[in-house]
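Researcher: Here's my situation. A collaborator sent me these components and asked whether they could plausibly form a single complex. I don't have experimental data yet, so a predicted model of the whole assembly would be a useful starting point for our discussion.
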Amino acid sequence: MSDEWSAIAGVLIAVLGGAIRVGTPFLFVSLGECLTERSGRINLGLEGTLVMGAMTGYGVSYLSGSAWLGVLAAGGAGVMLGWLHALLCQQRRVNDIAVGIALMIFGTGLAFFLGKPLIQPSAPRLPALSLGAWSDNPAVRAALEINALFLIGALLAVALWWFFRYTRWGLYVRTVGESADAARALGLDVDRVRMLSTMAGGFLAGVGGSFLSLYYPGSWSEGLSSGQGLMAVALVIFARWNPIHCFFASLLFGGAAALGPALQSVGVTWGYYLFNAAPYVLTLLIMIATSSSTRVLAGMPGQLSSGK
Amino acid sequence: MIRTLEPLLIPVAALAFSLLLFAVFVAAAGADAIGVFESMYRGAFGTWFSWQNTLGGAAPLMLTALCTALPARIGLIVIGAEGAVVVGGVSAALTGLALQGASPSLAIPAMALAAMTAGGVWIGLAGALRHYRGVNETISSLLLNYIAIAVMSFLVFGMLRDPATLNKPSTYPIGEAFMLSPLGDTSIHGGFMLGIGACILLWLLMRHTPFGFAVDIAGGNMRAARLVGLPVGRLVVITCLLAGAAAGLAGMVEVAAVHGRANTSLNAGYGYQGILVAFLARHNPLAIIPVAILFGGISASNGLLQRDHELPDATGLVLQGIIFIVILVSEAWYGRLNELLGTKRPTA
């Protein structure tokens, strides 16, 4: 009996640790997507940005010897892709979703192309903070090996919430996202606000990508991302475009993704591949449960062409 | 005059411009751009052998492109072809295994039907969720891709696994008898004709029947379609069913004409390339045929590109990304070609 309990406790601790580890990239990408969507555009290309960020972060960390420089460079790559997205979306009759799909393919292709020589070498990784040092249980200690980026992300979520709510620029972004006409009447440059929001969103997604290559799983390979950038878009809808909710939603998604490996670690191997589908099934179920064909979602920026 | 040629001129110009950008890219990467184009031409269309590879690679692209093109006509952006190929391929393999010993003239159509049903239900689900629950079809169809791949992995790594397949877990083979025979004495597989047939059939349906007309009306203005009493929900779901059936058939073709069994080769990216083909063909089923052949050629030449120029295998992906971006921007040129070329625009 006690064996079973300790196995269940082991799974729970592993899921919690996994939620933090696997959830961190979700957190950054979803905060980036949240910012972009509040300005009235959807950027599906963040999947490409994530992969590009992972490659850039790893490459720069390898060349410079500094993992944190890699993180910054990853953000820079994200800014470039965000700029491209915004620039393309400004053209007449160009659909933001389609641009996103194109940039997903382009960003992924570019990252694989440039990242080919990076598959072998090992770059300096981001250090972990051992917040579980107080415990003598190795499972708890492993679960609480936390990366500083997770803490930065958590602070960013609060900062972004405050930004939207209390700052002049936050109000600009919300106005542009709610009604471009109203924003123009106020004299705001809609395209400019959206471009800056998409570039800042790209920065965050790039940083999220660098977490993948520099911390967990912690190396560069072509199979690094499995759609986290896209799931983040669904996650933002689930979080109702609220950065604080994005934080909790990311943990939930990370936990769902960690379920399969956690079960495997205690010897439950049946259905390993099915458990891998857990985050996707969860996302889909949440979207089915929270969407409606007749009313607009609470909190949805008025200018989003979809999301409804 | 120029106006009527726009649907042809603009994509061709966009393609030419993309190739120019790609040339700059490979030159920046240190490769000889002219030589790269030569290799691409040789690998895609240079010899009868490369033509056969190109046409074989074009077959699944035609079918997966239909999976994006048809829903696009009614205003939906569906990117779930990859998942529909997977469920289609697995269903076809299961049907083939269940019917071992039966006559091929029964089993092959049954496999195709099973694949089309599975793919149709898969994408039909995304369409139904969109219409009846308001779930964004782009995201749901994408999530369904990952779910399809997970289900397939569960099956081929588990209960359906042929223990003889070590490196690449697969189902048992469906057997030589159930394989689609190649065309004549070529090595172009039978799926090519299926792809062409599907494109022509769906072009006729979309362009020359009341159903296709209703879809175009709903795609142009959903509210107007409702006001004139069109059954919009049914149109959305049926369009998505047909789209998914086409992609499902691509899965059957991959199993019954290429691999002989279902495995992870099914999610080799045909679904994602199909999105690009559909956009380049402007969602016209007939235009999909030449565009798919072109992209079949790009894929077929990828190996030669790696060998001749030591370029990474992602080179093709970069080229596709560039083409996609330029094609989207070229949307803005429609109706303005006169202006851009400096001729006088008729007063509207």
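Model: Some features of this prediction you could bring to your collaborator: Chain A is about 70% helix and 0% strand. Chain A touches chain B through 51 residues (CB under 8 Å).
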